[in-house]
Design goal:
The complex is a heterodimer of chains A (476) and B (314).
Chain A (H helix, E strand, L loop, with lengths): L5 H17 L4 H17 L5 H20 L6 H35 L18 H16 L9 H9 L12 H9 L6 H34 L6 H32 L17 H7 L2 H12 L9 H19 L3 H18 L3 H4 L8 H22 L3 H13 L14 H17 L13 H17 L15
Helix pairs in contact in A: 1-2, 2-6, 3-4, 3-5, 3-6, 4-5, 6-7, 8-9, 8-18, 9-15, 9-16, 11-12, 12-13, 13-15, 15-16
Chain B lengths: L1 H24 L9 E3 L5 E3 L4 E6 L5 E6 L18 E7 L1 H4 L9 H8 L3 E7 L5 H10 L1 H6 L2 E5 L15 H7 L2 H8 L1 H8 L4 H12 L11 H18 L7 E5 L6 H9 L4 E3 L1 H6 L14 H20 L1
Parallel strand pairs in B: 5-6, 5-7, 7-8, 8-9
Antiparallel strand pairs in B: 1-2, 3-4
Classes of the chains: A mainly alpha (476), B alpha/beta (314).
Chain lengths: 476, 314
C-alpha cells in the first residue's frame, strides 16, 4: 500500500480510530492490532511477501531467546544463524540474478561462451533490505549484550513489521523501537500534531518535488545521448532533488504516521544538501542506514582505530557494501566507491575542519555547500544511470560537449515553474534547517495555517496524474 | 484526543476555504459553459455565457470564450442573409476553440483572409458526424442561406454512429446537482480537472465493476473501416449534407483513404490539411494538448480560404 494512495487515505484514519478508541486499554491487543494492520499494509503489495517477513521475524525472535540464555554456549552459532538466514534471504531475492549474470559476463569476457542457465524469474519483495537489516540488528545487539531479548512475540512482530517504516525505513534499532512497543502508549496531542505536520511536508516533498521532477529526469536520462550539456546538467541536479524529495518525503510521512500512533522513530534526513563536505553529508543523508553500517560493519572491522591502511579499507568496505545494498547493479557499487574516495580526504584531516558545524553564513560556507552539492550530484549520475557505460557517457557529454540549449519538458510544461519551485523549496528548507522534525516552526498559528494552505496548493499545482507514484527506495 | 480530532477537522475546513479563495483569485479552475438540448433536438451551449477556459495545473493555457445567441463559441452572431457571403464551419472541440480567445478563432482568421465572407462557427466539444449532419438538417432554413459549409471530421472518433440521437444522458449528468456543485466549488472543479479526484473515481468504479468481466471482441482494421463507411452511408441517407456547398475538412495522413474516396465519390470536396501541416516548420498542436495551436489554426484557416478561393475561380 502506497502512502500516496486512496487506500492509505482510508487505511490511516480507520487504523488511528481503532488503535486509540477501541484497542487502547490493552497493550497486547493494541500490539496485535498493529501487527494485523502492518500485515494488511504489506500484504496489499503481494500477500506472498507476508511469509517472508513472518519467517524473518520468527527466526530472529527464536535466535534472540537463545542468545539471551545465560547458559548458552553456542552464541556465535546462533548469531550466524540469524545473519545467514537474513543475508540468505536478501542474497537470494535481491542479488542472486545479479551475481549469476555477472559470473556469466566474466566468463564471456575471458572467451568462454556458456549459456546462462542460472538466471531465475525472482520477484523482489518490497522493503526486504529494510526489515532484514532491522531484524539482524536485534540479534547483533543481543549478541553484543547491548539489548535483552524479548519474549513477547507480538511486540517483536510489531517492531519488525511496523507499517509506517516497514518498506523504506528509517531502519529502526530494536533498542530504540522495541521498548516503545513493550510499553503502554498514551495519546499525546502535541506529538500527534507534529505527526500531521510531518505527513503534510512529506507529501509535499514526494508529490510536488519528486513526482513533478520524475518525468523530466526520466526524459533526460533516457535520451542523454541527444541532450545538450545544459540539459544533462539539469537532469543530474533534478535527480538530486527528486531522490531527496522522494526518500526524505517517505521518511517524513513514516515518522509523522508513527507519531500519530505514539511512536518516535529516528531521524533519517537532516537537510543533507546543506552539508559543507561529504562527511557531513553522510551524517545527514539516510542516517539510519549509515549508522547501521557504522555500528555493525565499520566498528567491528576496527573502525579508524587501526593503521591508515586498515581505516581506508574499512571506509571502502562500508561504502561499497552500502552501494550494493541500494541495488544489484555495478552502478550502485561504483557510486559507493566514489563516495568512499570523496570521503577519505576529509577523514584524515583534523576533525574540527571536516565537521565544522551547521553554520552557513559566510561566503566560503556557501561555496563549500555548493561545491559539495555539485560533487554529490555528479555521483547521483551513477546511481540513476542504467549501467556504467551510460553513466560515463552522460558525464563525458556533460563536461566536454559544451552547449546551452533550452530544455523542453516532455509534456510541454513551462520549465521556469520547476526552477522557481526548487528555488523556493531550497530557501524554505534553509529557513527551517535547525530542526528536521519541525517543518512549520512558526509560533503564529495564522502563519502556520497559511503555510499549510500554500503547501497543499503547491501539491496541487505540481501534481502529475500520469506519473508512477511509487517511491524510489521501495526497489532497494 | 477529542481536541485533536476537532482541531484537525477545523484546520482542514479552514485550509479548504483558503484554497477555494486562492483557486478563485488565481483563476486556476476551468469554466465549462452549461449545455442543453434545444427544441430542435440539437445539443449546444446555453447562450450568453462568457468565461475563461483553463488548461493544466498551472494555467498552461487560458482563453476567453463567448457563447453567442445561437449557443456556440464565436465572436459573431449568426444572422445569415441572402446578400452576404457566409461560411458555416462545423466541428468538435477543434472548431469550438476553447484553447484560443474567441476573438482570434479559426473563423476570424478565415475572415481576415476572405474579407467578403462571414464565418459562422458551429463548434461543440464532442460533436461527431451524426451531430454535425443533424445540425444542418435541423436548421435547414438557416443553412440554405449559407453559401459554404465546411465539416471537420476527426477520424475515427466522429464515425462511430450511424444515426443521430441527442445525448440526453450526458446533458442530464452535466446538469445534475453533483456536477453543479462541482462547478460551483472551484477547488473541486480544479482538483477534478487536474486528475486529483481520479483515484477516488477509479476506486469507486473498481468496486462497482468487481465481479463483472467485460469481453472485448477484437475487430480488424478493415472491419472497422467498413463499419465507418456504413455509418457515413447511413447518415448521408438520413441527413444528406447540402450538395454543391459542403466540403469536408480532413487530416488525410491519419484518415483511412476509403473514407476520403467515399466522400469524393459522392461529390463532396475534401480539404486535406495534412500536407500543409507536414510542411510547417513550427509545431501545429499545443505541446500539452492535441488541439491546434496558433500556427495550426493559421494553417487550417489558410487551407479553407484557399479552397473557397479555388471554388470561386472555378
Amino acid at each position: 500500500m502506497l502512502f500516496n494512495s486512496i487506500e492509505f487515505l482510508i487505511f490511516l484514519p480507520v487504523s488511528f480510530i481503532l488503535y486509540w478508541l477501541l484497542f487502547r486499554k490493552n497493550l497486547k491487543i493494541q500490539n496485535t492490532l498493529l501487527v494485523v494492520l502492518s500485515y494488511i499494509f504489506y500484504g496489499a503489495w503481494d500477500y506472498r511477501f507476508l511469509a517472508l517477513i513472518f519467517l524473518s521475524t520468527l527466526v530472529d525472535y527464536l535466535v534472540g531467546i537463545q542468545l539471551g540464555k545465560p547458559e548458552q554456549r553456542h552464541r556465535r552459532l546462533w548469531l550466524w544463524t540469524s545473519i545467514s538466514f537474513n543475508i540468505g534471504l536478501l542474497g537470494f531475492f535481491k542479488y542472486y540474478n545479479f551475481f549469476a549474470d555477472s559470473f556469466y559476463e566474466l566468463l564471456e569476457h575471458f572467451g568462454y561462451h556458456a549459456q546462462n542457465q542460472f538466471t531465475l524469474n525472482i520477484l523482489l519483495p518490497v522493503g526486504i533490505s529494510f526489515y532484514t537489516f532491522q531484524t539482524m540488528s536485534y540479534s547483533l545487539d543481543i549478541y553484543h549484550k547491548k539489548l535483552k531479548p524479548t519474549k513477547d512475540f507480538i511486540a517483536f512482530s510489531a517492531y519488525v513489521s511496523f507499517f509506517p517504516q516497514l518498506v523504506a525505513g528509517p531502519i529502526e534499532r530494536a533498542s530504540h523501537l522495541l521498548p516503545q512497543m513493550l510499553n503502554k502508549r498514551k495519546f499525546n496531542y502535541l506529538q500527534a500534531v507534529e505527526g500531521l505536520r510531518l505527513i503534510l511536508w512529506g507529501f509535499f516533498k514526494k508529490i510536488a518535488i519528486a513526482d513533478a521532477l520524475a518525468p523530466i529526469v526520466d526524459d533526460i536520462f533516457s535520451n542523454s545521448d541527444s541532450m545538450s550539456s545544459s540539459s544533462l546538467f539539469i537532469g543530474a541536479v533534478f535527480f538530486g532533488f527528486q531522490i531527496y524529495g522522494d526518500f526524505s518525503g517517505y521518511s517524513d510521512i513514516a515518522i509523522g504516521t508513527s507519531k500519530l500512533f505514539g511512536f518516535e522513530l529516528m531521524s533519517n534526513f537532516k537537510f543533507p544538501y546543506f552539508s559543507r563536505n561529504i562527511v557531513q553529508f553522510w551524517r545527514r543523508w539516510h542516517i539510519s542506514l549509515s549508522t547501521w553500517f557504522r555500528d555493525y560493519i565499520y566498528y567491528p572491522l576496527g573502525g579508524s582505530k587501526g593503521s591508515k591502511i586498515t581505516t581506508i579499507r574499512n571506509v571502502f568496505v562500508i561504502f561499497l557494501v552500502s552501494g550494493l545494498w541500494h541495488g544489484a547493479n555495478w552502478t550502485f557499487v561504483f557510486w559507493g566507491g566514489l563516495h568512499a574516495l570523496l570521503f577519505l580526504p576529509f577523514f584524515f584531516i583534523h576533525k574540527a575542519k571536516w565537521n565544522p558545524g551547521l553554520r552557513i553564513n559566510r561566503l566560503t560556507d556557501i561555496i563549500s555547500v555548493m561545491l559539495n552539492f555539485l560533487l554529490v550530484t555528479i555521483t547521483w549520475i551513477f546511481f540513476r544511470a542504467e549501467n556504467l557505460t551510460s553513466a560515463f557517457e552522460y558525464l563525458k557529454r556533460m563536461f566536454t560537449d559544451f552547449s546551452i540549449t533550452p530544455y523542453l519538458h516532455p509534456a510541454g510544461y513551462r520549465m521556469i515553474d520547476y526552477f522557481i519551485l526548487l528555488l523556493i523549496f531550497t530557501g524554505y528548507e534553509f529557513l527551517i534547517r535547525r530542526n528536521e522534525r519541525a517543518p512549520y516552526p512558526f509560533k503564529n498559528k495564522w502563519v502556520r495555517l497559511s503555510l499549510y494552505s500554500i503547501t497543499v496548493l503547491a501539491i496541487m499545482l505540481f501534481y502529475d496524474d500520469q506519473v508512477d507514484r511509487s517511491f524510489i527506495y521501495f526497489q532497494f | 484526543m477529542k481536541k485533536f480530532i476537532i482541531k484537525s477537522i477545523a484546520y482542514v475546513v479552514l485550509i479548504l476555504l483558503i484554497l477555494e479563495g486562492l483557486v478563485r483569485i488565481l483563476h486556476l479552475y476551468d469554466e465549462d459553459p452549461p449545455r442543453f438540448i434545444d427544441e430542435a433536438g440539437v445539443e449546444k451551449r446555453i447562450p450568453g455565457n462568457e468565461g475563461i477556459s483553463v488548461t493544466g495545473n498551472r494555467i498552461q493555457n487560458h482563453a476567453r470564450f463567448h457563447i453567442n445567441k445561437f449557443g456556440y463559441n464565436s465572436f459573431r452572431e449568426f444572422i445569415p442573409t441572402d446578400t452576404d457571403k457566409e461560411i458555416a464551419l462545423i466541428g468538435d472541440s477543434f472548431i469550438q476553440g476553447f484553447h484560443i480567445d474567441y476573438t482570434n478563432s479559426i473563423g476570424k482568421k478565415i475572415e481576415d483572409q476572405l474579407p467578403q465572407y462571414k464565418v459562422f462557427e458551429f463548434g461543440y466539444a464532442g460533436y461527431d458526424l451524426a451531430d454535425q449532419l443533424y445540425l444542418i438538417h435541423a436548421y435547414d432554413s438557416i443553412f440554405k442561406a449559407i453559401d459554404d459549409v465546411i465539416i471537420y471530421v476527426h477520424y475515427p472518433d466522429d464515425l462511430y454512429r450511424d444515426d443521430y440521437e441527442p445525448n440526453q444522458d450526458r446533458v442530464n449528468m452535466l446538469n445534475s446537482p453533483l456536477f453543479k456543485i462541482r462547478d460551483e466549488i472551484k477547488l473541486l472543479s480544479y482538483a477534478s480537472a487536474i486528475g486529483l479526484v481520479d483515484p477516488i473515481k477509479e476506486a469507486i468504479l473498481s468496486i462497482r465493476s468487481s465481479g463483472h468481466t467485460e469481453v472485448h471482441d477484437e475487430i480488424s482494421d478493415s472491419e472497422k473501416i467498413a463499419s465507418y463507411l456504413r455509418n457515413i452511408e447511413s447518415l448521408f441517407t438520413k441527413f444528406p449534407p447540402p450538395a454543391q456547398k459542403t466540403a469536408f475538412l480532413i487530416d488525410g495522413e491519419h484518415c483511412a483513404p476509403e473514407i476520403v474516396s467515399l466522400l469524393k465519390s459522392k461529390g463532396y470536396p475534401v480539404i486535406d490539411y495534412s500536407g500543409a501541416f507536414a510542411q510547417s516548420e513550427k509545431p501545429v498542436t499545443l505541446i500539452y494538448d492535441q488541439h491546434w495551436n496558433e500556427n495550426g489554426r493559421k494553417i487550417i484557416a489558410r487551407c479553407i480560404s484557399e479552397y473557397i478561393n479555388s471554388k470561386k475561380s472555378d
